């Protein structure tokens, strides 16, 4: 299936969870917030949240600075 991750089209297997996508992209532990189709997904749901073909993911990391 095709999924758009931070504006870039990626291919993943059907029934892939949000957590599995983070693992495949080596982003585990780096992402602080995730939105699917502009809806925030709580971190405790990532392991069970199934991504679907055509979904748009925004994976965010908060950076400090000034």
TrEMBL record:
| Lineage of origin | Bacteria, Pseudomonadati, Campylobacterota, Epsilonproteobacteria, Campylobacterales
Annotated Gene3D superfamilies: 3.10.20.30
Going by the entry's taxonomy, the superkingdom of the source organism is recorded as Bacteria
UniProt cross-references to PANTHER family, sorted A to Z = SULFUR CARRIER PROTEIN THIS (PTHR34472:SF1)
Cite the Pfam families for this sequence: ThiS
Tell me the organism: Sulfurimonas paralvinellae
The identity of this protein, by name, is: Sulfur carrier protein ThiS
């Amino acid at each position: 299936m095709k999924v758009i991750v931070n504006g870039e089209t990626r291919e993943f297997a059907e029934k892939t969870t949000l957590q599995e996508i983070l693992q495949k992209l080596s982003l585990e532990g780096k992402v602080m917030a995730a939105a699917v189709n502009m809806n925030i997904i709580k971190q405790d749901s990532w392991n069970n949240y199934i991504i679907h073909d055509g979904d748009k993911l925004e994976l965010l990391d908060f950076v400090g600075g000034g």
